[in-house]
Amino acid sequence: MARFGKQRFSQQYQSFVGMGARPALHENSKELASILKETGILEKINSIFELGSGPGRNLHYINELKPELKLLASDLYKEHSLKYMHESIKNKIDFIEGDSELVIDSITFEEIDLLLVSDHFMHLQYEKVEKIFNTIKNEDPKPKYIMLRELRKRWETPDHPRLYHDYKTLLEKYNLILSKKSKQDEAYFIWLLELK
């Protein structure tokens, strides 16, 4: 039977996805940072919120390119996320502990320019992600940009679980300005969306 949330991921999981993660995960993060720089989006934003950030590895590499960014993040375990986070962002990040669906319901996007979600939605139930998408679409104001790195449909394994979701629903409110396979792993796509 498929397990989700704290039933699947213990606090120790953070040690595998933080700054001590295997090299391939660091390359994933660097790829996201380079896309933001190459597309010019990095110059247009002042703040990023990463949903399901773990120890903020992605934010670390983005922060290296633009240290004045305001960083916000969330995950199930704050203490262990901070434990495995790079020192350069540990004291500047605004971190929210909690379930992603509840976190999205509790925040306002008024001061968030870009919402980043990487390798996270694939670990959430279909109905949970649908609710998150609906919250984002109905929120006012919305983040100006959304960046996704998630599993492609072809590689979905519901029993594992690694799930694919209806990302096209976001196109009701956003224009897709970049769509590509990840250079690191063809099982993943990267989308960059801009508010219409």
The main sheet orders its strands as: 3-2-1-4-5-7-6
| Beta-strand share of residues | 15-25%
Mean pLDDT: 92
CATH superfamily: Vaccinia Virus protein VP39
Distance between the termini: 40 Å
SSE series = HHHEHEHHEHEHEEE
Number of strands: 7
Uncertain residue ranges: none
- CATH class assignment: Alpha Beta
State the helicity in percent bands: 25-40%
How would the global form be characterised?
globular
Structural category is: alpha/beta
In the CATH hierarchy, the third-tier topology is known as Rossmann fold
Helix segment tally: 8
> What would you report as the Rg, rounded to the nearest angstrom?
15 Å
Largest sheet: 7 strands, mixed
CATH architecture assignment name: 3-Layer(aba) Sandwich
- Domain module tally: 1
Any chance you could write out the topology, listing elements then pairs?
Elements: H1 14-17, H2 23-38, H3 41-44, E1 47-51, H4 57-65, E2 70-75, H5 78-83, H6 87-90, E3 94-97, H7 100-106, E4 114-118, H8 126-138, E5 145-151, E6 174-181, E7 188-195
Parallel strand pairs: 1-2, 1-4, 2-3, 4-5
Antiparallel strand pairs: 5-7, 6-7
Helix pairs in contact: 2-4, 7-8
